[in-house]
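Milestone M4 deliverable, item 7.
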Amino acid sequence: MRRVGINAHLLSGEAGYRRAGIHQYIAQTVANLPPGEGAYDYTLFTRFRPSWQRPDVTVVPTSWPTEKRWVRILWEQSAWPLAAARQEMDLLHSMAFVTPLWSPCPTVVTVYDLSFLHYPDRFPFLQRLYLRTQTRRSCRQARRVVTISESGRQDVHHFFGVPGEKIDVVPPGVDKRFQPLPEGEVAAFRRRRQLPERFVLHVGTLQPRKDIPTLLEAMARLDRPDLPLVLVGGKGWMYDEIFARVEALELAQRVRFTGYVPDEELPLWYNAASLLVLPSVYEGFGLPLVQALACGTPVVAADASALPEAVGDAGLLFPPGEVEVLVNQMLVILDMPEQVATMRQRGLAHVEQFSWARSGQRMATVYRRALSS
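Output delivered:
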């Protein structure tokens, strides 16, 4: 039996913005790994236990407060390789950018994006320095590198010189709860949340690369004073500009900040919205886009990084930062119901290719390749 040790310390134990993105990817991918069937045994090293249990996944929690970044770094560079040596692991998988400097066995590393290289000024200096140097070293040392999009694969190859044949793409999936919901259920949700019949939605942590100011500028230029913007997501970092721009554009009565929204409530927000807009200048994938499409909600996204992969032929794109083009694309959805009907059909077909079961299968293939090379 081959033993695979998985670093899952970015699983979050409490509601908040940290339960988005990477948390979901780790939790769902490991939960959907195909059964080991006596050939593989998975050990999950984590601070917080996942919500599921599997007989072939051993969970090893730690008392270290690894929700603090510096503690997590210390754990993954010291405690984890020592524990892996004691437990005679055959492969270590770091599911977030960095592997140990010393490992008792081969490694796999997952890189979600390289935003710290594309937009270094939007990260604190020490965080940027650590990620830049240690992600490069980890990718070059690892047996296999995993990215969540083809765009990410090209980035790792370009910036770190990692051969393309050593990089595997394992896209995220879409949970089955993201689907078109009955009109009555959606209408009741609107009443509870005091939402109008039509509104623009953005889902994502408030941080610089989401480029929310561009969306705010578009809302200000859109001649629809009764059309609000709802920003779903917790505060990340360097978000003060967003609130300042709302005031400067006199949008305080038209912009609503919900804060973090529980995962089980997200499908209702997508179903209730007229459209989702994701103006990010850079994303490792763009999961809100496929979640919205799975709910039958049309989307507009920036033509940047991996976002066209997430949208496929089902949504509309605009050049990053081009406010007027964004406004025009939003008007297409708001004023052309025939176009929306076509986009809805294309979206529901497009998202069929994204499932967590497929993500788990692909990750297991990565492990087989790493152990056989």
